[in-house]
Amino acid sequence: MRVLGVDPGLTRCGVGVVEGTAGRPLTMLGVGVVRTTADAEIGPRLVAIEQGIEAWLDEHRPELVAVERVFAQHNVRTVMGTAQASAVAMLCASRRGIPVALHTPSEVKAAVTGSGRADKAQVGAMVTRLLRLAAPPKPADAADALALAICHIWRAPAMNRLQQAQAAARSSRIPTTTSVRKVTR
């Protein structure tokens, strides 16, 4: 499975491509950051992120795009920018018919380090070890994008089995009608 991980952000949008399957060594195919300047207008920044992600999709042809799920922070401005960059990534993938998976930061940290409370240095160190890299990818947004891709590759088989089990349970249910009788005393 080839997955493009996207760590959304308006100034630095981390991107990384990992290929492999659960239980096997993984391979990094590329890592980088799509950058925009903080003083530019929002529209051109979103266009620049779109163009950057489209270039990654063209070059690496992933089977799936894993995007960090936006979570509530104290800084509303940061949340909005992250959500906007996230939407651009989802739009680019969906336009091409590429499935999108969302993973929370704690889910990614737990998958890669074993702890949902790991810091950026721990995530970078584990990404370096798991992908057999000489050094952690810089900046941290790039390492986070690779961690998203790794998380999805490792969790996809279990997620697929759960979805299949839920679909089977829904299709095996037989609708029943019940009558309720009012009891008076």
Q: Which key terms come to mind for this protein?
A:
185 residues; single chain; five-stranded mixed sheet; 5 helices; alpha/beta
Give the structure's gist in a few sentences.
The chain has five helices and five strands. The protein is of the alpha/beta class.
Descriptive account of the structure:
The protein is an alpha/beta fold. The relative contact order is 0.19. Helix 1 (42-60) crosses helix 2 and helix 3 packs across helix 5 (140-172). It has a five-stranded mixed β-sheet. The protein is 50% helix and 17% strand. A hairpin with a 4-residue loop joins strand 1 (2-7) and strand 2 (12-19). The mean pLDDT is 91.
Topology, element by element:
Layout: E1 2-7, E2 12-19, E3 27-35, H1 42-60, E4 64-68, H2 76-95, E5 100-103, H3 105-113, H4 120-130, H5 140-172
Parallel strand pairs: 1-4, 4-5
Antiparallel strand pairs: 1-2, 2-3
Helix pairs in contact: 1-2, 3-5, 4-5
- Contiguous runs where pLDDT drops below 50 for at least 5 residues: none
Q: State the separation between the terminal residues, measured CA to CA.
A: 65 Å
Rg is: 20 Å
Which band does the percent of strand residues land in? 15-25%
Largest sheet: 5 strands, mixed
For the secondary structure, the number of strands is: 5
Strand order across the largest sheet: 3-2-1-4-5
Order of helices and strands: EEEHEHEHHH
Measured as a percent range, the helix fraction is 40-55%
Assign an overall shape. globular
Overall pLDDT: 91
Structural class: alpha/beta
